[in-house]
Amino acid sequence: MTYRLGVDVGGTFTDILLVDESSGETYRAKTPSTPHDQSVGVLRGIMQACAAADIGLDQVGDVMHGTTIATNAILEGKGARVGLVTTRGFRQVLQIARSFVPGGLAGWIIWPKPEPLAALEDTVEVGGRIASDGTVVEDLDEDDVRAALDKLAAQGVEALSISLINSYANPEHERRVAKVAQEVLGGLTVSVSSSVLPELREYERTLTTVANAYVQPRVARYTANLSEQLTESGVGGKLYILRSDGGLASAATAADNPVSLLLSGPAGGVSGAAWVAEQAGFSDFLTFDMGGTSTDVALVQDRVPRIGRETKVGDLTVRATSVDVRTVGAGGGSIAHVPPLTQALRVGPQSAGAVPGPAAYGQGGVEPTVTDANVVLGYLPTSLAGGEVTLDRAAAAAAVQTIVDATDLGSVEEAAEGIIDIVNENMLGALRLVSVQQGFDPRDFALVAFGGAGPLHANALGRLTGAWPVIIPPSPGVLCAYGDATTSMRDEAVRTLMRPFSSLDDDALRDQLVELADDARASLIRDGLSESDLTVTYAADLRYHGQGFEIPVAIDASAFDGNGGGLASLREAFDAEHERLFSFLLGNEHEIVTVRATASGPRPAVAAPVLASGDADSSGALVGTESIWVDGGAVDAGLYQRDQLLAGNVVTGPAVITEMDSTTLVLPGHAATVHPSGSLLIRPIDQSAADGAEG
């Protein structure tokens, strides 16, 4: 038998999912994350999953890993000291930046401008100039380059970024600087903008290249260390890292371009949600991933996640393709507090994290968290992660009591319910960002909820958004790892054109797409994939002439078949997207700014699990009753064991459904139907019992 292994490292837990490719059977492990060295938690979890499957590590094939190593380096400010080489006259490109301050009026008063990732004293200028059409205006001064690099070496930079003006149009000068850098700086990692982001806009290209250099040494060390440890442990397969766009890259490719990994973790959840929604027969859905530290949401249409051209982590926004995921600081570990000035209850974004964790974990935490509120309300059992984590209800109640003492709430249950209501509203705001704000009605979508805490809040979020059914996947706490294990390898190539449609024809654009497709396939072929197994999709960033922003639009390659309909179809697609986003069209000429080709390998042949059939009676999975607090009062809820449920069973709320890695709350007036694929489909009881889109 062949096994695939998905790994997802979160802020609180590391999730492992071992998948038998022939049967679809899965084996799970959830272990506390080890922030000091993520590989420790990863290897511990792999051993636990293999023990559960009763196999040796030598039977594990490829390892697919969603990682937060690059994200954490940005958020914690623990990246490398970066040297930056620019064209003479552009030394302050990062300091000038863009004239934008986030937030409302107060932002202009109190917003501290973040320090650039490459300090001004570590930024040097060199002589030489490329024009916007790629012609050489001034030859590169290699003596100047050597002197500048010698200065950076003396200052102790740990990584080098090279971003010269207009290098997207002609990378010759940048490549020569990189070659000299190898001689002067030895084995220092070098990021070259014409490779990292060959697009116009000097600031965005430089910022993205510097960010790549900032995290590159840390990512390279981590992937090399983990690969070595996997090999020493007997794992024979290769290590692959999940990209921000939901595709996989080999460990070596990921280490060369780590800026593409900044949303690696959340992208795994979206990929996993697409897998389970497909099994349940749904193509349009919102994803809701609530973990210990934060909540990530995204929108998927026709089983394809919406892809953005920017990746935002903290205060940093870089130009890198990623799943359009929005994050809020609302998780199981989010801390509830009452600011003295307002005396109003707040939840997050501060988090208790993995250490010390919620008070209920008994590891020294004393501040009230969302997890503590769920424990007080009776939604959580006294053990999590298959018994690895035991909850202390008395400690949780003591923590939430501090909220009662600081407010006029009458009981610890009322305070806990207030915490849950507030965190649910915070997460509703994030869901509206990816739906209503983008022109989509959430009532037209299902809601796939996962993560360790997602199923606890999913029914409430369905009630707030009107998105039905709410889909709770099998193993919701490790769905990100499932997404890692069931996605395909991917790479992309991009080129800036800056051409009005009047100066293009179908043949010229088709030739550009063919060249980009060859570039996108190249790395995947080097990693061992067959060219015949690769598929290529195309997209373009378009705008009306005179606009200062672009909109990404998919290119229908079949329209460029020689009949002259290619540009016309692209114009029509852009107009439709512009009207959906802004409700108006312009008569200006259309302009193509950037085109890209994305090559993808085949999806792994992982069999979908199928549950044994039953009827609507779910009493065989009922293990008892539990008093829970819902909508202002105590009610008795059925307590169900999820692995005892059969396809077709219906669990009527109020109910709590427990499993190894997560807990699902079914509210009064709602019912969860068990789909043959293993997902729970929660709907209001007064809705039709028909399965609708289920397959």
Automatic annotation (TrEMBL):
Tell me a Gene Ontology molecular-function term this record carries.
5-oxoprolinase (ATP-hydrolyzing) activity
Sequence ranges assigned to domain Acetophenone carboxylase-like C-terminal in this UniProt record: 509-673
Top-rank taxon, per record: Bacteria
Q: Where is the Hydantoinase A/oxoprolinase domain?
A: 205-490
Q: Where is the signal peptide?
A: none
GO CC annotation terms, alphabetical: cytosol
Q: Which Pfam families match?
A: Hydant_A_C, Hydant_A_N, Hydantoinase_A
Q: What positions does the domain Hydantoinase/oxoprolinase N-terminal occupy?
A: 4-184
GO process terms (BP): glutathione metabolic process
What's the protein called, per UniProt? Hydantoinase/oxoprolinase family protein
Give the species this sequence originates from.
Mumia zhuanghuii
